[in-house]
Design goal:
Elements (H helix, E strand, L loop, with lengths): L2 E5 L5 H8 L3 E5 L4 H11 L7 H7 L9 E4 L23 H12 L3 E6 L10 H12 L3 E7 L12 E7 L8 H5 L24 H15 L12 E2 L18 H4 L15 H6 L13 H28 L9 E5 L11 E5 L2 E5 L16 E2 L4 E2 L2 H7 L11 H10 L3 H13 L2 H7 L1
Parallel strand pairs: 1-2, 1-3, 3-4, 8-10
Antiparallel strand pairs: 4-6, 5-6, 7-8, 9-10, 9-11, 11-12
């Protein structure tokens, strides 16, 4: 039996994996009081609070251990966040707290989890810094990216897993973990049949989807639906994107039209900018990808205006620009929105094939929707997607799905930990 610590513990994905392998948790930290209480309920351990405060003022309370486990905060390194990395004063330096613990207690192993982009962050300077620190502490390190859907769990959630050992990794091999990958995946094994506690899709959301269904139905079958994000605000818009709107005078901008063809003439610059799509209301040159999407949407409307003009007028009345955008990610399959997995996201309503769920994220407004049942996935289904069994979750649904979005997939951790620990010759000899 080995001893492990569980930092930024959350729901305890690392704990579940190591516990099932027969190892003992001797310390946990979790700053969120709600999650701390749930962790105690699930695992019988009261987590300490802010690890940064603990390391700075009372690091000695962290006991000796064999394995350090943590999915340290990914937001500073995520492409979806501000990408401040270690410059993030609240969370970016927490990697340094991990290093201080490794330096003090010198555990034989560590297993870290984060977003893959951490390798590219800051022109790879963040990753180079991490490698230097591991090397300074005499850890041999390896890493690989994994997503649950590669192992038969229907969730696309790519994460980097980093392992370290003070005794070398000559007997550790990620390729043996790869052998557990499978192409056999049945999403319906993870969907509850007639669940009693469900959060139904609100009527306004349903009406929004019906409106987009009308949009799709009006497009002849022989015309391919856009594979690019549909930005309906560009239907009728003529505002310039080369140069960008902020760079020209209000008089010049007044010669153009904004979202859905609304006139920009005879009004102040501030009001003109308010009549543009939010992604166009920026004081900088548009990136090439944004220009491409604008051009594609304007061309699509020009070619198909006679089919969709009337329904676009209704789409323009939707209460949010995010509802006025649609991502049709199902190709040339059946043109029925309710047959698919859906998400209401800031970049638009996303329609995905029924092969695996999109990544659970900490933003509770993006909970996946089972289109044909007009409901969000249940808490139990969320637990299945993170391989967390039937552990307790926060009572509040929003808090529960935030926690699931921040959780590590326990099954993948178990595969990695098993391979890492089984490669330890000292453990093998003690077990004989």
């Amino acid at each position: 039996m080995l001893k492990f610590i569980d930092l930024f513990a959350g729901l305890g994905g690392f704990h579940k994996a190591l516990h099932e392998l027969g190892h003992e948790c001797v310390f946990a930290s979790e700053i969120d009081p709600v999650l701390s209480k749930v962790y105690e309920e699930n695992w019988g351990i009261v987590p300490c609070g802010d690890i940064k405060e603990i390391v700075e003022n009372r690091i000695e309370i962290i006991p000796d251990h064999d394995i350090l486990c943590t999915g340290f905060p990914c937001q500073p390194f995520s492409k979806a966040g501000k990408q401040l990395g270690r410059k993030d004063e609240d969370r970016g330096t927490l990697f340094d707290e991990i290093i201080k613990i490794l330096e003090l207690r010198k555990p034989k192993y560590f297993i870290l989890e984060n977003v893959p982009f951490i390798k590219q962050h800051d022109n790879e300077e963040t990753w180079k810094y991490m490698e230097r620190e591991f090397k300074r502490l005499n850890y041999h390190v390896d890493h690989r990216n994994y997503s649950p859907h590669e192992f038969g769990i229907p969730q696309h959630r790519l994460r980097i897993f980093i392992v370290g050992s003070r005794d070398g990794l000559s007997d550790f091999c990620f390729d043996r973990i790869d052998s557990f990958k499978t192409k056999e995946l049945d999403i319906f094994e993870f969907i509850d049949k007639s669940p009693s506690l469900v959060h139904k899709l609100p009527p306004k959301n349903i009406e929004c989807l019906k409106l987009w269904q009308r949009f799709i139905d009006n497009i002849p079958e022989d015309i391919k639906l856009p594979g690019f994000p549909i930005w309906s605000m560009e239907f009728g818009a003529t505002y310039p994107y080369k140069p960008y709107p902020h760079s020209i005078s209000s008089k010049e901008l007044g010669e153009y039209k904004g979202s859905f063809g609304i006139s920009l003439k005879g009004i102040e610059k501030r009001e003109q900018m308010a009549r543009l799509p939010s992604y166009a209301n920026v004081d900088r040159k548009f990136p090439d990808w944004k220009i491409k999407y604008i051009e594609q949407n304007r061309n699509f409307y020009k070619e198909n205006k006679k089919y969709i003009k009337q329904v676009v007028k209704e789409i323009a009345k939707l209460p949010s620009q995010s509802w006025q955008k649609l991502e049709w990610n199902v190709g040339s399959t059946e043109r029925k929105i309710s047959n698919y997995i859906l998400q209401f996201r800031a970049p638009g309503i996303r329609v995905k094939k029924v092969d695996f769920f999109p990544s659970l994220v900490s933003t509770n407004t993006q909970i996946p929707i089972i289109g044909w049942e007009e409901r969000y996935i249940t808490r139990k289904e969320g637990l299945k997607l993170q391989s967390l069994g039937q552990i307790a979750l926060p009572i509040n649904d929003n808090a529960a799905f935030r926690a699931l979005g921040n959780a590590v997939n326990s099954y993948i951790v178990k595969l990695i930990a098993s391979e890492l620990i089984q490669s330890d010759k000292s453990i093998k000899s003690s077990e004989k």
